[in-house]
């Protein structure tokens, strides 16, 4: 499996000859949009789900399956995009690749703000992208994409999330809200947690592929 982080929430995953693009939003760099087999959107927030990017994926990769939680799927279906709704506890086979979905709701930002649908996605039983939540799938995670900034989290919760997952590899994502100082602090804290159980923290440059 080859994983490229294009900034913030966006991961480009290539495995078994297939390509899965996850959460290309408006705070990410734009990945190549042709040759995509599946576009997975974990939830409706624009930093994860940019409708203009989704339209271009549909145009440039007409074979791509578009997958999103029910509220986002219904919204974009109304805009003419063929988005399939996925729910926690279900899975989808994209060629030889299996995408398993978990979670259900976005983490709470504030009691007065609405909570949208959110699905985490486990790609081929190895890479887990949680969207904006700390829900974990059943079973082991080999490579955990760990959010490190946002109005819905604090660093102690991220540390607990990583410690609970005990993934061999941890890739920090969702960093756009951090200052340079805040990002250094987050990576220092995660390095400590990962070292405690013998894992490894990955810190590639944006756009630099990582093979796992």
TrEMBL record:
<dbReference type="Pfam" id="PF13483">
    <property type="entry name" value="Lactamase_B_3"/>
</dbReference>
<dbReference type="InterPro" id="IPR050114">
    <property type="entry name" value="UPF0173_UPF0282_UlaG_hydrolase"/>
</dbReference>
<protein>
    <submittedName>
        <fullName>L-ascorbate metabolism protein UlaG, beta-lactamase superfamily</fullName>
    </submittedName>
</protein>
<dbReference type="InterPro" id="IPR036866">
    <property type="entry name" value="RibonucZ/Hydroxyglut_hydro"/>
</dbReference>
């Amino acid at each position: 499996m080859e994983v490229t982080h294009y900034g913030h929430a966006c991961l480009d995953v290539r495995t078994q000859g297939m390509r899965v693009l996850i959460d290309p939003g408006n705070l990410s760099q734009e990945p190549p949009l042709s040759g995509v087999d599946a576009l997975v959107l974990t939830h409706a927030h624009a930093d994860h789900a940019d409708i203009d990017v989704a339209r271009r994926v549909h145009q440039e990769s007409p074979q791509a399956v578009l997958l999103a939680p029910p509220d986002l799927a219904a919204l974009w279906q109304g805009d003419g995009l063929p988005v399939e709704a996925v729910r926690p506890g279900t899975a989808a086979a994209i060629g030889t690749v299996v995408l398993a979905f978990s979670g259900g709701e976005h983490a709470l930002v504030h009691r007065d703000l609405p909570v949208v649908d959110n699905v985490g996605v486990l790609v081929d039983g190895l890479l887990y992208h949680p969207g904006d939540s700390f829900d974990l799938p059943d079973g082991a995670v080999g490579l955990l994409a760990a959010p490190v900034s946002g109005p819905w989290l604090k660093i102690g919760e991220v540390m607990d999330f990583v410690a609970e997952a005990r993934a061999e590899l941890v890739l920090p994502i969702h960093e756009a809200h951090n200052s340079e100082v805040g990002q250094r602090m987050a990576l220092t804290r995660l390095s400590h947690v990962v070292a405690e159980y013998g894992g490894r923290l990955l810190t590639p440059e944006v756009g630099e592929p990582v093979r796992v």
